[in-house]
Amino acid sequence: MKQLKHILFIALKDLKLFATDRMALSFFIIFPFLFVVIFNFMMGDVGSEDERLELHLATQEAEGGLSHQIIGAIETRDDSQLKPGEPKIVWLKDYDQAHQAVEDKEIAGFLAFPSDFTEGVMMGSGAQLEVAADAEAINTRAALYGLARAIASGVGSQYVAANATIELLIEQGLITPGDTAEIEQVIQQRANS
Protein backbone atom coordinates (compact mmCIF):
# COMPACT_ATOMS: atom_id res chain seq x y z
CA MET A 1 0.00 0.00 0.00
CA LYS A 2 2.89 2.29 0.78
CA GLN A 3 4.27 1.73 -2.72
CA LEU A 4 0.95 2.74 -4.24
CA LYS A 5 1.08 6.05 -2.32
CA HIS A 6 4.59 6.68 -3.62
CA ILE A 7 3.43 6.05 -7.17
CA LEU A 8 0.49 8.43 -6.68
CA PHE A 9 2.74 11.17 -5.24
CA ILE A 10 5.18 10.84 -8.13
CA ALA A 11 2.33 11.02 -10.67
CA LEU A 12 0.88 14.14 -9.00
CA LYS A 13 4.31 15.78 -8.89
CA ASP A 14 4.84 15.08 -12.62
CA LEU A 15 1.35 16.38 -13.41
CA LYS A 16 2.08 19.66 -11.54
CA LEU A 17 5.35 20.06 -13.45
CA PHE A 18 3.60 19.32 -16.73
CA ALA A 19 0.82 21.87 -15.99
CA THR A 20 3.36 24.61 -15.24
CA ASP A 21 5.42 23.96 -18.39
CA ARG A 22 3.66 26.01 -21.09
CA MET A 23 5.70 24.53 -23.93
CA ALA A 24 4.82 20.93 -23.00
CA LEU A 25 1.17 21.88 -22.55
CA SER A 26 1.01 23.55 -25.98
CA PHE A 27 2.61 20.50 -27.65
CA PHE A 28 0.13 18.28 -25.82
CA ILE A 29 -2.83 20.23 -27.22
CA ILE A 30 -1.58 21.31 -30.66
CA PHE A 31 0.28 18.22 -31.94
CA PRO A 32 -2.69 15.84 -32.20
CA PHE A 33 -4.57 18.34 -34.37
CA LEU A 34 -1.43 19.10 -36.35
CA PHE A 35 -0.90 15.39 -37.06
CA VAL A 36 -4.47 15.04 -38.29
CA VAL A 37 -4.06 17.99 -40.66
CA ILE A 38 -0.65 16.86 -41.96
CA PHE A 39 -1.67 13.23 -42.53
CA ASN A 40 -4.94 14.27 -44.13
CA PHE A 41 -3.02 16.48 -46.55
CA MET A 42 -0.38 13.82 -47.31
CA MET A 43 -2.80 10.90 -47.64
CA GLY A 44 -5.68 12.77 -49.29
CA ASP A 45 -5.69 10.59 -52.41
CA VAL A 46 -5.19 7.27 -50.61
CA GLY A 47 -8.44 5.38 -50.27
CA SER A 48 -10.28 7.67 -52.65
CA GLU A 49 -13.00 6.17 -54.78
CA ASP A 50 -11.79 3.36 -56.98
CA GLU A 51 -12.56 3.60 -60.66
CA ARG A 52 -15.02 0.88 -61.56
CA LEU A 53 -14.11 -1.41 -64.45
CA GLU A 54 -16.32 -0.72 -67.47
CA LEU A 55 -16.96 -3.55 -69.91
CA HIS A 56 -18.54 -2.60 -73.22
CA LEU A 57 -20.64 -4.95 -75.34
CA ALA A 58 -21.90 -4.61 -78.90
CA THR A 59 -23.74 -6.84 -81.34
CA GLN A 60 -23.91 -7.10 -85.11
CA GLU A 61 -27.09 -9.15 -84.86
CA ALA A 62 -30.52 -7.87 -85.87
CA GLU A 63 -32.97 -6.70 -83.21
CA GLY A 64 -34.62 -9.57 -81.33
CA GLY A 65 -31.67 -11.92 -81.55
CA LEU A 66 -30.30 -13.87 -78.62
CA SER A 67 -27.38 -11.46 -78.25
CA HIS A 68 -29.81 -8.59 -77.61
CA GLN A 69 -31.43 -10.63 -74.83
CA ILE A 70 -28.06 -11.50 -73.27
CA ILE A 71 -26.74 -7.94 -73.36
CA GLY A 72 -30.06 -6.58 -72.10
CA ALA A 73 -29.95 -9.01 -69.18
CA ILE A 74 -26.43 -8.12 -68.02
CA GLU A 75 -26.35 -4.41 -68.92
CA THR A 76 -25.90 -2.12 -65.91
CA ARG A 77 -28.91 0.13 -65.59
CA ASP A 78 -28.16 1.68 -62.18
CA ASP A 79 -24.57 2.13 -61.00
CA SER A 80 -25.68 2.48 -57.39
CA GLN A 81 -26.95 -1.12 -57.40
CA LEU A 82 -23.49 -2.54 -58.19
CA LYS A 83 -21.61 -4.28 -55.41
CA PRO A 84 -17.96 -3.41 -54.76
CA GLY A 85 -15.76 -5.00 -57.40
CA GLU A 86 -18.58 -5.62 -59.88
CA PRO A 87 -17.90 -4.18 -63.34
CA LYS A 88 -20.21 -1.77 -65.08
CA ILE A 89 -21.61 -3.33 -68.28
CA VAL A 90 -22.31 -0.79 -71.05
CA TRP A 91 -24.25 -1.64 -74.22
CA LEU A 92 -22.81 0.04 -77.30
CA LYS A 93 -25.62 0.09 -79.85
CA ASP A 94 -23.42 0.70 -82.92
CA TYR A 95 -20.68 -1.85 -83.70
CA ASP A 96 -18.74 0.45 -86.08
CA GLN A 97 -18.78 3.33 -83.59
CA ALA A 98 -17.50 0.92 -80.93
CA HIS A 99 -14.53 0.01 -83.16
CA GLN A 100 -13.87 3.69 -83.78
CA ALA A 101 -14.02 4.41 -80.04
CA VAL A 102 -11.32 1.77 -79.44
CA GLU A 103 -9.14 3.25 -82.20
CA ASP A 104 -9.62 6.75 -80.75
CA LYS A 105 -8.79 5.35 -77.28
CA GLU A 106 -12.13 6.57 -75.90
CA ILE A 107 -12.77 3.07 -74.56
CA ALA A 108 -10.28 0.32 -73.78
CA GLY A 109 -12.17 -2.40 -75.63
CA PHE A 110 -15.45 -4.23 -76.15
CA LEU A 111 -16.96 -7.67 -76.64
CA ALA A 112 -18.92 -8.17 -79.86
CA PHE A 113 -21.52 -10.75 -80.84
CA PRO A 114 -21.48 -11.80 -84.53
CA SER A 115 -24.44 -11.30 -86.85
CA ASP A 116 -25.15 -15.06 -86.88
CA PHE A 117 -24.95 -15.59 -83.11
CA THR A 118 -28.53 -16.81 -82.57
CA GLU A 119 -28.39 -19.07 -85.62
CA GLY A 120 -25.07 -20.57 -84.51
CA VAL A 121 -26.37 -21.27 -81.02
CA MET A 122 -29.69 -22.74 -82.19
CA MET A 123 -28.04 -24.95 -84.82
CA GLY A 124 -25.45 -26.17 -82.34
CA SER A 125 -22.51 -25.00 -84.44
CA GLY A 126 -21.60 -22.30 -81.94
CA ALA A 127 -20.58 -18.72 -82.57
CA GLN A 128 -17.31 -16.87 -82.23
CA LEU A 129 -17.46 -13.87 -79.88
CA GLU A 130 -15.05 -11.07 -80.82
CA VAL A 131 -12.92 -9.15 -78.34
CA ALA A 132 -11.67 -5.85 -79.74
CA ALA A 133 -9.33 -4.08 -77.33
CA ASP A 134 -6.51 -1.58 -77.33
CA ALA A 135 -3.10 -3.29 -77.32
CA GLU A 136 -2.15 -1.56 -74.06
CA ALA A 137 -5.39 -2.43 -72.24
CA ILE A 138 -4.26 -5.82 -70.94
CA ASN A 139 -6.59 -5.88 -67.92
CA THR A 140 -9.63 -4.91 -69.98
CA ARG A 141 -8.77 -7.54 -72.59
CA ALA A 142 -8.50 -10.22 -69.89
CA ALA A 143 -11.81 -9.14 -68.32
CA LEU A 144 -13.54 -9.21 -71.73
CA TYR A 145 -12.20 -12.70 -72.48
CA GLY A 146 -13.43 -13.82 -69.05
CA LEU A 147 -16.86 -12.35 -69.75
CA ALA A 148 -16.91 -14.06 -73.17
CA ARG A 149 -16.11 -17.42 -71.55
CA ALA A 150 -18.84 -16.88 -68.94
CA ILE A 151 -21.41 -16.04 -71.63
CA ALA A 152 -20.36 -19.02 -73.76
CA SER A 153 -20.60 -21.31 -70.75
CA GLY A 154 -24.05 -20.02 -69.79
CA VAL A 155 -25.38 -20.25 -73.34
CA GLY A 156 -23.86 -23.71 -73.77
CA SER A 157 -25.45 -25.01 -70.59
CA GLN A 158 -28.84 -23.59 -71.63
CA TYR A 159 -28.46 -25.27 -75.03
CA VAL A 160 -27.60 -28.63 -73.46
CA ALA A 161 -30.50 -28.35 -71.00
CA ALA A 162 -32.95 -27.44 -73.78
CA ASN A 163 -31.79 -30.35 -75.96
CA ALA A 164 -31.98 -32.79 -73.06
CA THR A 165 -35.50 -31.58 -72.24
CA ILE A 166 -36.59 -31.94 -75.88
CA GLU A 167 -35.09 -35.44 -76.14
CA LEU A 168 -36.87 -36.53 -72.96
CA LEU A 169 -40.19 -35.09 -74.18
CA ILE A 170 -39.78 -36.85 -77.54
CA GLU A 171 -38.80 -40.11 -75.83
CA GLN A 172 -41.92 -40.00 -73.65
CA GLY A 173 -44.11 -39.17 -76.63
CA LEU A 174 -45.20 -35.77 -75.34
CA ILE A 175 -43.98 -33.98 -78.48
CA THR A 176 -43.18 -35.21 -81.99
CA PRO A 177 -39.66 -34.81 -83.43
CA GLY A 178 -40.77 -32.69 -86.41
CA ASP A 179 -43.09 -30.35 -84.50
CA THR A 180 -40.99 -27.18 -84.49
CA ALA A 181 -43.70 -25.09 -82.79
CA GLU A 182 -43.71 -27.36 -79.73
CA ILE A 183 -39.91 -27.52 -79.70
CA GLU A 184 -39.63 -23.72 -79.89
CA GLN A 185 -42.12 -23.46 -77.03
CA VAL A 186 -39.94 -25.79 -74.91
CA ILE A 187 -36.83 -23.75 -75.76
CA GLN A 188 -38.59 -20.50 -74.81
CA GLN A 189 -39.75 -22.02 -71.51
CA ARG A 190 -36.15 -23.14 -70.77
CA ALA A 191 -34.81 -19.70 -71.69
CA ASN A 192 -37.29 -17.93 -69.39
CA SER A 193 -36.64 -20.21 -66.40
Automatic annotation (TrEMBL):
Keyword terms, alphabetized: Membrane, Transmembrane, Transmembrane helix
ABC-2 type transporter transmembrane domain: residues covered: 25-159
Subcellular location: Membrane
Gene Ontology cellular component terms for the protein in this record: membrane
Primary subcellular site in the record, as a coarse category: membrane
Topological relation to the membrane, as annotated: Multi-pass membrane protein
Family matches, as InterPro entries: ABC2_TM
GO MF annotation list: ABC-type transporter activity
Protein name: ABC-2 type transporter transmembrane domain-containing protein
Species of origin: marine sediment metagenome
Upper classification of the organism: unclassified sequences, metagenomes, ecological metagenomes
